[in-house]
Amino acid sequence: MRVQLSWEDPIAGEQQEIVCTVPIVLGRHPEKQLSDRQEQIFSQIKLSSQQVSRLHTIITYSGGQLLLEDRSANGTFVNGHKVLQSSCAISNGDTLQIGPYLIHLIVLSRSSSNIEVTNQPTIIDTSTVVERRNSSESSLFNEESFVLKPSYAERIQALSLPKAFSAHQVPLEELRAGVYLSNYEERDFVVVGGGIGSFTFVNTLRIAGVNLDRISVIGRGEPQPYGRYQLICRNSQIPDYERLRSGSDSCPDNIWGFPGYAIREAWRECFTKGRLDHSLKLLWMVFSEPALSDTYTPRSGDVFAAMEREAKRIGWYEIWRSGHVRAIRKTTDDRYVVAYLDPNSRTESPTYKYLVARYVYLSTGYTNVRFLDDLQEYRHRTGDTTAIVNAYENHEHVYDKLMKRGGIVILRGEGIVASRILQRLYEARKYHSQIKVIHLVRSEKTESNRFHLARRYRENGWEFQPFNWPKGTWGGDMRSRLETAGPAERAQLLRDWGGTTTANRRDWQRIVREGIQQLWYERVVGIVKQVDRDEIGRLEVCLQRRLAGSEEILKADFIIDATGLTAKPIEDPLLGDLVKFYNLPLNPLNGLHVTNSFELEKMRNGKGRMFAAGIMTLGGPYAPVDTFLGLQYVAQRAVAKLVQTRAKGVHSILGLRSFSQWLKWATNQRP
After folding, report:
1. Coil, strand or helix: which one is 537?
2. What is the DSSP letter of 588?
3. Residue ranges of the domains in the chain?
4. Alpha helices in 315-386 (DSSP H)
């Protein structure tokens, strides 16, 4: 039997479609776990996520029906229901959830007589399948069991918008005339993005008294509001037990910030595990930060678990829908119309759906992973996606190979993720001591950032700061100054306060010192001219030294790019369309120009209002816009603006309402 499996990659947003032959095994490393299977496995599909077990799910055909066998630790879901028995029947059109992957199944044929049974199964590695389509490695895939169609993103970008969208104000009667009733809806609020920024706004709206039937959230990928961020964290070596770069009171699940993460963790350590000493240490980190101890930061798993609890409390999953938003236009009746496509649609010609709302909240997050130009050029030219990797994509194979054989790694980037990658490499050296790290930077700063008399601590080229922005920008004089400054002054202040920094953690500083002393860590300054492979297959980096001006060749087994994520609105298809169509102004840092309430003033449409949150507004009235606290701050400013404009059903969250809603939060009751 042959089936088609299709899903949207949770990180890149690319649609992948694979035609393969049953039996099929899906997992993170299925080939390592198949020793107990007696029958021939035709297809192995590797899913690159730590949420996926090594051997997660097996699909077989027996007795005239497809059977799904769950072999995982985290469970497999069929059409939203967890598989409770060892196996269950599945059929054409079912949706399987494996970790962060929503996989749609279509039965193509019930005959497999034309498939040649070989001794080895066809192995499909989904982490590299999109990159390999133009590479010489494509020969690894048997055309009989592997078909890659144009990406979902390519198909929808080629799909033309309706004629009505060519007007700056869409006449709804004209739009409705050619639309199926099931594809047209109206709400008061539509939130575009589906991530943590969207979640904080919905959370604040619910606390302000807005009912669920007035809100819709359109997101991509998995419905969990923290899903994409969790995957990025795990890929960049921050699993659930590691700590995020965030404060105790920056709680996406709790707009009041009390009790903060430190108090919650200290309570568990003391009264659940009986570790009073550790509990007191956690509280000391909060009250003494950062002069006498490392700054307290929460474990990522604790943050995600708390957000899951709050998502269920406010009814997040009841209003979330899967959708790829293509365009937003003003309407002739003082509202907005959102055109989106359902990525779960299994038709070759997707059809637009339309959602009309009075208020729109944009929080689409980072556009994509960002590769340095020289590394991107190498990947495009060679199709090699295993030796040169981005820190935000799955790259566990790098550490697996290093722990077995050792090798040289070139690390790019100087921020928090680069520090975590360095820690991971340090841990790998416990398994193989012949691991060397070359930390390659384009230029060396002569001194650290300073503002008036304040100067950041700098050591061995790293610039340390507990959080990515000074705490004064969160709610003190620095925030007030930024709000009152003009665009040019804001840009200069943000340059002075910002820059690339990493957390002021003593263990990370110690790792760098040890690496320098033991000669396995070296910091190199220069400009990369060319990346290639030598005659034995090792990476060869042609480097021009900054000071000497001479060129030299660096040899390495892997390069890890930890320079960040893409954040320019103009590079995002949806935001870029808005900017061009309505000629929206950008600030000097190329973010969307917003008011102090984070409204896109030029998108105002009578009583209709549009707000923007997150990294797309960097350069505006608030510095830490992409932090937990920043996303909550923007949500509260936007809701306060709605209260001021007397938006129907939106109440102030101050005073008695605030206290009563906190009690509901504490007792896990609906707002």
Report:
1. coil
2. T
3. 2-156, 189-224+319-367+569-666, 245-298, 371-465+501-565
4. 316-319, 373-382
463 forms bridges with which residues in the sheet? 458
Task: Identify which of 399, 206, 222 has the alpha carbon closest to the alpha carbon of residue 315.
Answer: 206
**Strand 457-459, strand 43-46: pairing:** unpaired
- Determine how β-strand 95-98 pairs with β-strand 76-78: antiparallel
- pLDDT reported for residue 345: 61
Residue 109, pLDDT score: 62
pLDDT at residue number 123: 63
Query: Among 595, 66, 80, which Cα is nearest to 320's?
Result: 80
What pLDDT, on a 0 to 100 scale, did the predictor assign at position 91?
A: 86
> Residue 2 phi/psi, 5° resolution?
-115, 135
d(CA 403, CA 558): 13
CA angle 491, 492, 493 (to 5 degrees): 95
Contact (CB, 8 A) for 94 and 7: no
In the three-class reduction of DSSP (H, G, I as helix; E, B as strand; rest coil), residue 154 is classed as: helix
pLDDT recorded at residue 246? 93
Q: What is the C-alpha radius of gyration for the chain, rounded to an integer number of angstroms?
A: 26
Q: Which pLDDT belongs to residue 14?
A: 63
Q: What is the number of alpha carbons within 13 Å of residue 291 lying toward its C-beta?
A: 2
**pLDDT attached to residue 618:** 95
DSSP string, 187-236: EEEEEEE-SHHHHHHHHHHHHTT--GGGEEEEESS-S-TTHHHHHHHHHT
- pLDDT beneath 50: ranges in the chain: 38, 111-119, 128-151
Terminal-to-terminal C-alpha distance of the chain: 50
Task: Report the C-alpha gap between 88 and 66 in whole angstroms.
Answer: 9
Query: How do residues 609-655 score in pLDDT, each as one tens digit?
Result: 999 999 999 999 999 999 999 999 999 999 999 999 999 999 999 99
Per-residue tokens: 286: 């909060």
What are φ and ψ of residue 215, in 5° steps?
-125, 140
The domain made up of 189-224+319-367+569-666 is a member of CATH 3.40.50.10780: no
Q: What is the pLDDT of residue 106?
A: 83
Q: Tell me, what's the pLDDT at 86?
A: 77
In CATH, what is the architecture of 2-156?
Sandwich (2.60)
Q: Which residues contact 544 (CB under 8 A, 6 or more apart)?
A: 526, 527, 528, 529, 550, 551
Phi and psi (nearest 5°) for 304? Answer: -65, -40
Fold matches, 2-156 and 189-224+319-367+569-666: no
b/e map 431-470, b = 16+ CB within 10 Å: eeeebbbbbbbeeeeeebbeeeeeebeeeeebbbbbbbbb
**Exposed/middle/buried for 268, CB within 10 Å: 0-12, 13-18, 19+?**
middle
In sequence order, what are the residues at sequence separation of 6 or more whose Cβ sits closer than 8 angstroms to the Cβ of residue 595?
601, 621
The matching CATH number, chosen from 3.40.50.450, 3.20.20.10, 3.50.50.60, 3.40.50.150, for 371-465+501-565 is: 3.50.50.60
User: Which tens digits make up the pLDDT trace of 118-146?
Assistant: 445 566 665 544 333 333 222 222 222 33
Give the C-alpha separation, 421 to 410, whole Å. Answer: 11
Nearest partner of 68 among 44, 54, 60, 3, judged by Cα: 60
Task: Could you list the beta-strand ranges (E) of 489-613.
Answer: 521-533, 539-545, 551-556, 558-561, 565-566, 609-612
Residue pair 16/129 in contact (Cβ under 8 Å)? The answer is: yes
